[in-house]
Structures are given as C-alpha cells and as structure tokens.
Design a protein that fits this description.
alpha/beta, 17% helix, 5-stranded mixed beta sheet, 171 residues
Length: 171
C-alpha cells in the first residue's frame, strides 16, 4: 500500500475543515509554511505524530499569538522526508527568486529529491514535467485561495508516485 500524504500550505491561522478532514485520513501531513498559529498544527496532528511543517515568511513571532511562539521556534525552514520510493523536500519557497525561475531553481537546489513542495504563491501547481517534481498545494485557509481552498494528496509507493490535486468550493 502506498503512503498517503496530505500536502498543504498557507493556512495563515485558518484551516479549511474539509482539508482537515482529508488530512485526518492520511498517513502523514505536510505543511509548506505560513501556518499562522499552533492551533492549525494541533488540528493537523490530531491523535498521531505524523506531521511535518516548515516556517514561511509570515511565520514570525510578531504575527503569531504570544502563547504559540515556542511552537513557532521549533519549525524549521526546510525539511526532508524519506518516503517509499524517494525523498520529499519541503520549504516555503519565498527565498527562491525570481519567482519566474522558482521551479528550475528548486530543482537545482534539490536534485536528489523525488519531489519538492513549496508554498508562498497560494497557487495550486503540479509541475511533473521534469525531476524532481515541483508541487505547490495552493492555500488551505481563507486567504487568497484563487478559486477555493486546496491541497494535494500524494500516494507514495516504492516504484510509483501519484499526485492528486484537491480544490474545494469557496466557503
């Protein structure tokens, strides 16, 4: 059985409940940054310890509740996961510029990855034309969803990986 990974980003403190429900049915959850508060991470973690999240450009002590700053401090800027069939790299992407070359630059930075996840733009993108794949799940909250909250489901098997984009109607 492939590992089911829910990939999301850019919640900015508000997680769409439909994405939360989908994440609860996955083996692992990946958040690509701009989390917004510890409550979002708590919802995504649920009863299991299967959550990997990175810090985004808006994940700053001045923008998080004071009680959550210790949680924020534990978020790395980049993470790597060993999944069946390859490595998944996660970073927010705001430090990879210019934006027009972001996919090429992410591929150059992480040539050994099977896929690279980034957020920041709030735009759902599955760039599977070259290796590594470059995946942006769009925005999983209320801010700038460009058509509705979205995420990606990654089915990672030892030989085959499959990405399934999910977009929900605006609330």
């Amino acid at each position: 059985m492939p590992t089911r990974v829910c990939i999301l980003s850019d919640t900015h403190g508000a997680l769409d409940p439909r994405i939360a429900a989908l994440a609860a049915r996955c083996d692992l959850v990946v958040h690509g940054g701009d989390v917004g508060n510890a409550a979002v991470l708590h919802l995504l973690r649920g009863e299991r310890d299967a959550l990997v999240a990175v810090r985004g450009n808006n994940d700053l002590p001045t923008k998080w509740p004071a009680a959550d700053v210790a949680v924020l401090g534990a978020l790395p800027e980049q993470a790597e996961l060993a999944l069946p069939g390859g490595r998944l790299v996660i970073e927010h992407g705001h430090q990879v510029n210019p934006a027009a070359r972001r996919h090429a630059l992410l591929r150059q930075r992480h040539p050994a990855a099977r896929a690279v996840v980034y957020g920041h733009s709030h735009r759902l993108v599955c760039d599977l034309v070259a290796a590594p794949w470059v995946l942006n799940p769009g925005a999983a909250g209320r801010s700038r969803t460009f058509g509705g909250p979205s995420c990606l489901l990654l089915h990672a098997g030892p030989r085959v990986w499959r990405v399934e984009p999910r977009r929900f109607a605006p609330p």
